[in-house]
C-alpha cells in the first residue's frame, strides 16, 4: 500500500519526489517489554522503538495497530495490517502460512514460573498463552495445557490456583518474579529460531527492506544496544 505525502513545499520543489510507503505495523500491545500500551495509550516497548527505527531507515511511513494475539496471523493475512511485530518466534509451522524476516531477537529461553517450587511440571496443569510455541510445547510434554488469551491471564491462573505453573518467554516472565511468591522453577527450554517480523508471503519487497535495516542495525551494534536497553546487560545479543 502506498500513500502520497505531498506538501506545498514539496510540490514547489519537484513533482517527481518519490512517495513514502505506508506500512501498518501489527502488534499485541500486551507483552512487555516487547510491546505494551503506555500511560498515553500508545504502543511502546522494544519492538515499537526498533520498528520505528527500521521504518525511518527504509523511508517507510509506519503506523501501529493492535490486535489480540489469538487472531494476529489471520488478520495479517486478511489485510488489516502489513506486518506482525509482536514477540513472534519464527517456527516451521508458522512459515507454512506467513513469511518472516531474519531474527531481530536471538533464539531465547522459555521458562516455567510457579508459586510452589515443587510444582508438577510434567503431570500438572500448565498455563500458556494461546497460539504460542510455549503452548505447543506444553501439549507435547504430557502436562495438562490450560490456554489463556494474554500473558497476564496465565499469571493470574497460577496465582488463583487454576494452574500449577505458567510457561512463557523467560524475558516476559522476569517482571513477575518475586510477586506473590512467584519464582522460576525447572529447567529453561530453547524453542524457535528467534523472533522476526511476520509478513504475507507476497510482500517480498517489504521483507527485503526490513531485512536490510535489521542487517545494518546488527552490523553497527545498534540492535544489541536496544536489546540491552530493554532486556538488561545480560540479554542475548547478536555477534558481529
From TrEMBL:
UniProt keyword annotation of Signal present: yes
Signal peptide region: 1-19
Domain called Solute-binding protein family 3/N-terminal: residue spans: 22-234
Source organism superkingdom: Bacteria
Keyword terms, alphabetized: Signal
Xref: SUPFAM superfamilies: Periplasmic binding protein-like II (SSF53850)
InterPro entries: Iontro_rcpt_C (IPR001320), Solute-binding_3/MltF_N (IPR001638)
Occurrences of domain Ionotropic glutamate receptor C-terminal (ranges): 22-233
Signal is among the record's keywords: yes
Name this polypeptide is given: Amino acid ABC transporter
Organism field: Thioclava sediminum
